Amino acid sequence: MPDALGWRRKFAIMAPSTNTIVQPDCDDMRPHGVTNHYSRIFTPNSKGIGNDSFKAGIQVIGDNVMDAVKSAMTMEPDYLVMGISALSFFGGLKGADSFVARIEGATGLKMTVGSHATAAALRAYGGARRIAVLTPYWPVMNAEVIGYFRDIGIEVVRDIALRCTSWTGIAEVTPAQCREALRQLDGDDVEALVQVGTNLSMVRLAAAAELWLGKPVIAINTATYWHALRANGIQDKVPGFGRLLEEF
After folding, report:
1. For 144, which of 125, 131, 196, 197 is 20 to 30 Å away at the CA?
2. Same structural domain for residues 129 and 198?
3. Which residues, listed in sequence order, are joined to residue 47 by a DSSP beta bridge?
4. CA–CA separation, 101 and 88 (whole Å)
5. What are 199-225's pLDDT values in tens digits?
6. What is the pLDDT of residues 3-41, one digit of tens each?
7. Same domain, 78 and 14
8. What pLDDT band is residue 130 in, cutting at 50, 70 and 90?
9. Neighbours of 39 (CB within 10 A)
10. 12: which DSSP letter?
11. What is the mean pLDDT of the chain?
12. What does the pLDDT average to over 169-191?
């Protein structure tokens, strides 16, 4: 018998324990008959994060991810969704594929990750080849993001790293700060703008920015949840979160 509420799909969504944005974002985009079940990856809320320490902090999250996956598996999910984007950009395309293969091999389930979801979103929009990227990260991590896109044939023309100094501080970045960053990133040489970093609140701002910039603006949480839905044959159009969920 199907689950009484998740009769279409039960999603297990793994996110850092410091992340306060992924859960409400995904719940706001959830169609009827799909349920989201969160498993939190233990993440010490490091303060004073900088360029030299950022990768080390992400490694701690990576070391703890399997515990969160094992916990999520007890509710017998239909599909896995990784609500942390940085892990899926490390090591470029090869690193992303390896990360996905490790989790899928351990669970026997398919999984959506932010890097691959964003690549799929860009293809859905028509295949932009020159993009700009906004993250809450530090330059050392932006280099990993740029490397992934380079591996799939996409040039990052410009990027901004907001250099947040704590994991919870990412969720404290204001829409005004993000809006100003988008304006700095945009230009005639940019075909689409991409926001990476799942604890940065951008799903609604990205949808609005598409209207005044006149080009695709992809928020990582929107792309990730859209990809998970479509990978499971769920074609519902969800208004309010931009063209990706409304048209594709």
Report:
1. 125
2. yes
3. 166
4. 11
5. 999 999 999 999 999 999 999 999 999
6. 999 999 999 999 999 999 999 999 999 999 999 999 999
7. yes
8. very high
9. 22
10. E
11. 97
12. 97
* Half-sphere exposure (Cβ direction) of 10: Cα atoms closer than 13 Å: 17
State the burial class of residue 1 (Cβ atoms within 10 Å of its Cβ: 0-12, 13-18, 19+).
exposed
> Environment class of residue 248 by beta-carbon count within 10 Å: exposed (0-12), middle (13-18) or buried (19+)?
middle
Provide the pLDDT for residue 57.
85
Same domain, 47 and 138: no
In a domain, 192, yes or no: yes
Q: Domain check: are 198 and 121 in the same one?
A: yes
Task: Tell me the pLDDT tens digit for each residue of 151-160.
Answer: 999 999 999 9
In a domain, 188, yes or no: yes
| Pair 140, 71 in one domain | no
Per-residue pLDDT, 59: 87
In a domain, 124, yes or no: yes
Burial of 211 (C-beta count, 10 Å sphere; 0-12/13-18/19+) = exposed
Say what the pTM is. 0.97
User: How many structural domains compose the chain?
Assistant: 2
> 36 and 19, same structural domain?
yes
Which residues constitute the domain of residue 199?
117-219
- DSSP structure class, residue 248: -
Which amino acid, one-letter code, is at 64?
N
* CATH at residue 106: 3.40.50.12500
Helices (H), 108-219: 114-124, 139-151, 175-185, 203-213
